[in-house]
Design goal:
Largest sheet: 6 strands, mixed
Distance between the termini: 27 Å
Number of helices: 6
Radius of gyration: 16 Å
Order of helices and strands: HEEHHEEHEEHH
Bound molecules: adenosine-5'-diphosphate, magnesium ion
Strand content: 15-25%
Structural class: alpha+beta
Helix content: 25-40%
Number of strands: 6
Shape: globular
Length: 180
């Protein structure tokens, strides 16, 4: 994929399908160590051992509409093509966790892409699910927790157009602050 955020969006869609109540997205940019880590964790249905075994096989998917599940294999391939590695999800009755690590400066490492838009899209796709997004750049961190935002909204839907516009700006500013 042309941007890592598209992988994040794709993997997050799996969590929504798995009925997750809380999704955690962690991005760590460690420039000194030359590492970019992306971790996506949910508390959905989890995967049994058979699914875990097959999940990194591009010809496997539990969906019947399309024979080929490519989301996870593509993410794995991207990381491995950038001197990185991929941690497949553990077998679990509850929840799934996927980690991909890239060499930050690798010539083939595609840009992170538009994270504010990606996060807002995930929130819009599933307002029932809580999302905790933490982005660390060297020593600085930004966190968005929709559970806390929902409390502040006092009944107003997080999908409200004004709220979404505000969220997009809030994330953009937060990320600008940490890379300064
Ligand atoms: N977060 C998750 N929780 C539970 N099962 C998952 C999760 N992510 C992926 N899976 C399982 O792994 C399969 C492969 O996922 P993926 O590679 O994204 O392909 P696709 O979504 O097209 O099926 C899914 O069909 C699903 O059965
Ligand atoms: Mg998928």
């Amino acid at each position: 994929m042309r941007e890592l955020s598209l992988h994040i969006l794709d993997i997050a869609q799996n969590s929504i399908k798995a009925d997750a109540e809380c999704l955690r997205i962690v991005v760590i940019e460690d420039i000194e160590a030359d590492k970019l880590t992306i971790k996506i964790k949910d508390d959905g249905t989890g995967m049994d051992s058979d699914t875990v075994k097959k999940v990194i096989d591009p010809f496997y998917t539990t969906r019947t509409t399309r024979k080929v599940g490519l989301g996870i294999p593509l993410f794995k391939t991207s990381a491995e093509a950038c001197d990185g590695f991929f941690e497949p999800p553990p077998q679990s009755g509850v929840g799934t966790e996927i980690t991909a690590v890239f060499r930050h400066s690798h010539i083939d490492r595609v840009p992170l892409g538009n994270m504010p838009e990606t996060i807002v899209t995930i929130i819009n796709a599933c307002d029932k699910m809580d999302l905790v997004y933490t982005h660390t750049y060297n020593q600085q961190s930004f966190t968005l927790n929709t559970k806390e935002i929902k409390k502040l909204l006092d009944g107003v839907s997080i999908n409200n157009i004004d709220v979404i516009t505000w969220l997009r700006e809030y994330i953009t500013e937060g990320l600008n602050e940490i890379v300064k």
